[in-house]
Specification:
This protein is mainly α. The chain contains 8 helices and 3 strands. A 3-stranded antiparallel β-sheet has the order 1-2-3, with helices on one face.
Length: 268
């Protein structure tokens, strides 16, 4: 059966071309698997909504594993403590990235007008870069640091790296959670609820919100973009190291937290 093409913007297509240009690796296989799951989810949306949800969730997990594999392969400090098979860690990746973006959205950098992602030729290869527009004139100029995350962020009198915990809590707040561990456990448990019956019955998904697969696709591509800012470069980029340590500190705190009530789907 031929897979239905995903609805992709021009930007999405450029990002997938960058993935195709990456050398074969465990990380690349994970991301290609994620795209395959998205295609299957798109195909199954009307025929089998439950399996479409399952495929969409698996796509996001595969993308998270791919990012971890990139960090492990590049031997970033602390990357050996990442767990690409751990469902809790995998489900923490997307909200963590959103937390980082939220944190930076509230910062002001003197002399910088705009920071965005772009594709351009670097050392003879097309790569994803950070494009920074300086605040010298309405039309530019733009600069592109290489590597793109070769920056360091410090806060407070002690000059420590951001923890992003408060931003993480704000990210999950719309879902009705005030406890990070509860949120991650619930997210990680959704696939099991689709596949297996519980004491109160089993979950039936009779239809699927149109935005579900689109949202999972956006999550996968966001994680892929993060990987593409790291994978091509042998240099250890300071911002990436700091983010890994913040992520691991968050994971360590989660293990120390007492069990909290978890919101579950009602049986039907």
């Amino acid at each position: 059966m031929e897979l239905s093409p995903l609805p992709l913007s021009e930007d999405d297509q450029r990002i997938l071309k960058l993935l195709d240009a990456e050398p074969p690796s465990r990380a690349r296989h994970c991301f290609r698997s994620a795209i395959q799951h998205l295609q299957r989810a798109h195909l199954l949306a009307e025929l089998d909504p439950a399996m479409a949800v399952f495929r969409g969730i698996t796509a996001e997990e595969e993308a998270a594993s791919g990012l971890m594999q990139v960090l492990i392969a590049r031997k970033y400090p602390g990357a050996d403590r990442l767990k690409p098979r751990d469902h809790i860690q995998k489900h923490a990746v997307t909200p963590f990235l959103r937390s980082v973006i939220r944190y930076f959205s509230h910062l002001h950098f003197p002399g910088i007008k705009t920071i965005r992602l772009a594709t351009m030729e670097v050392d003879g290869a097309t790569r994803l870069v950070t494009a920074i527009q300086l605040d010298e004139s309405p039309d530019g100029p733009w600069v592109n640091p290489t590597p793109p995350l070769n920056i360091s962020v410090r806060e407070g009198s002690e000059g420590s790296a951001p923890s992003y915990k408060q931003d993480f809590l704000k990210v999950i707040e719309p879902a009705g959670y005030t406890n990070i561990l509860s949120f991650l456990r619930a997210e990680a448990n959704v696939r099991n609820q689709i596949l297996y019956a519980g004491n109160e019955g089993y979950r039936v998904i009779s239809d699927l919100r149109p935005e579900f697969i689109r949202d999972r696709q956006m999550r996968v591509l966001a994680v892929l973009k993060a990987a593409l800012l790291i994978s091509p470069y042998e240099e250890i980029q300071p911002f990436v190291t700091e983010a890994i340590l913040s992520f691991l500190q968050l994971a360590a705190r989660l293990r120390a937290e007492p069990d909290a009530p978890t919101l579950t789907w009602s049986a039907s």
